[in-house]
Amino acid sequence: NSLTQMLPYRREFGSSSAASSGNLIIGDMNHARLVQYLPDVVNGHYQGAATHLITSESLGIGNNRLLYAPDGKTLYVGKTHLSWPGREGIKRITYTGTPYLQVEAMRLTPKGFTFQFNSKISVPADGSAYEIQSYRIGYHAGYGSKNYDLEDEPCAKVVADGKELIIELDKALKSNRVYDLRLPAEIKSALGYISSTRFWYTAHLIYE
Question: Which of 41, 119, 175, 183 sits most deeply, having the most CB atoms within 10 A of its CB?
């Protein structure tokens, strides 16, 4: 929604590997959450996906400034409101050290997407378990945009290969669209169930 400060996602703050290199943590003013950005490079240009990293009512809204403690395991979140809905004060989030299942990277492919996890996964094989839509958004001076030309994107093929999930779509990908992917909550590994199931990938460019 209304995003604020960005910080590099540090491996000490979660159970991640080098595959998460380049990821960002982003504050959210209007919701009780922090967002994670997963970068991708297509045809030499940067684009990528967003997902919810932390969603908790105890975090609250107005998440404006982010700062790591020296050990990298603790993140301080400074609040603001001014003339905008928000809160006051500082919240502290500390990683407990317990590994959990998460997506470390998301990539566009010529036929769909790949997800790189931090542990070997098992997934539902039925494509209907994966809810995928795409739409356009408007770029203009006015605040915000509705979703234009909403389309369902049936899943043609699902493959789990170790730590990687491969999804191929039934229809050809289109450029300048947001792909909204809802992964099944049943995806799991030895670390437990998937921690975040929804991903928004902005495909400015596709592979021709």
Answer: 183
